Amino acid sequence: PAGDDDDDLDLFGDETEEEKKAAEEREATKKASSKKKESGKSSVLLEVKPWDDETDMKKLEEVVRSVQMEGLLWGASKLVPVGYGIKKMQIMMTIVDDLVSVDNLIEDCLMVEPASDYIQSCDIVAFNKI
């Protein structure tokens, strides 16, 4: 009876041809489905604050909109009064999550020269998945 069990169970885990084929098919299916899956998009409301009330807000908006990268689309903007004659700009943007990091966009594009001449700080007001 002990000799009969040898064919049923392989204790060393050698894969049979059928198991190898099934595993390869699963991998191929996984790769195909991940390629088809479109990466998510997000809608972000960014608040851009100028240095003072003498900052040229039109130029500030031009500097912000001049930042171009794959997966980034700028939307509508508006000026919101803060106080003492200072206005901040709120601007919408749509991003492809896999291509654009909002933190990198702010740190590497908006908080460096020449943008930093106009921009004191940037804050994310709203971040929504689309």
UniProtKB/TrEMBL annotation:
Q: Mind listing the GO molecular function terms for this protein?
A: guanyl-nucleotide exchange factor activity; translation elongation factor activity
Q: How does it assemble?
A: EF-1 is composed of 4 subunits: alpha, beta (1B-alpha=beta'), delta (1B-beta), and gamma (1B-gamma).
Keyword set includes Cell inner membrane:
no
Name this polypeptide is given: Translation elongation factor EF1B beta/delta subunit guanine nucleotide exchange domain-containing protein
Q: Which SMART domains match?
A: EF1_GNE
Compositionally biased intervals (Acidic residues)? 1-17
Keywords linked to the UniProt accession: Elongation factor, Protein biosynthesis
The cross-references to SUPFAM superfamilies, in alphabetical order and at most eight, read: eEF-1beta-like
Q: Where is the composition biased (Basic and acidic residues)?
A: 18-40
This protein's GO cellular component annotations are: cytosol; eukaryotic translation elongation factor 1 complex
Q: Pfam families this protein is in?
A: EF1_GNE (PF00736)
**Family, per entry:** Belongs to the EF-1-beta/EF-1-delta family.
Instruction: Enumerate the spans annotated as Translation elongation factor EF1B beta/delta subunit guanine nucleotide exchange domain.
Output: 41-130
Q: Annotated region Disordered: where?
A: 1-42
* PANTHER family for this protein: EF-HAND AND COILED-COIL DOMAIN-CONTAINING FAMILY MEMBER, ELONGATION FACTOR 1-BETA
